[in-house]
Amino acid sequence: ALAAGAPTVTILSYRAIQHQRLLGRLEVARWKEEAPRLCHDERFGQALPILDRILERNPDDPAALQIRALTRFRLASEEESPDRRVELKAGALEDATHLIRLEPRASWPYRLRGCFFGEFGRTGEAEPDEAAAKARRAADPTLQDLDIDGTLALEAGRFEDAVEIFTRIILQQPDASGAR
Prior knowledge:
This protein is mainly alpha-helical and 180 residues long. 78% of the residues lie in helices and 0% in strands. The protein is globular and about 65 Å long. The termini are far apart.
């Protein structure tokens, strides 16, 4: 017979907790692969709940916030229900604002929110963000800056610009999986 004392139970409990944490991290890692793939396939409605789950676990995940902001933006442009469209636009702006709080010295979050404001017809609110993005932009833009530029070029239908920008990313970082 196996005798289990308090130290054995404590160790087993600790191991069970570690196991649960590992499973949770693996689940989030799987979601972080799935959501961008769905967005790449333009299946934004399927990606949004996955992004929500990622951000429930880690509300300050910049990559998930960026993808969710862009996903909400894209869904808002396609939404027929005025109430839902307003909700999606507000969510996109909320995510972009959260990114600014997380990355206040970076250019790209301001560029993202400024673009959203502009596309939503709120040019007065877009101008300060565009100025902030320009002021923070380095002479040699970061990969994140380039990724946002490329993504926004795609959204605007400027495909040649997007190809040029994503090519720059790939040349700088050949294993850049995010580059379209």
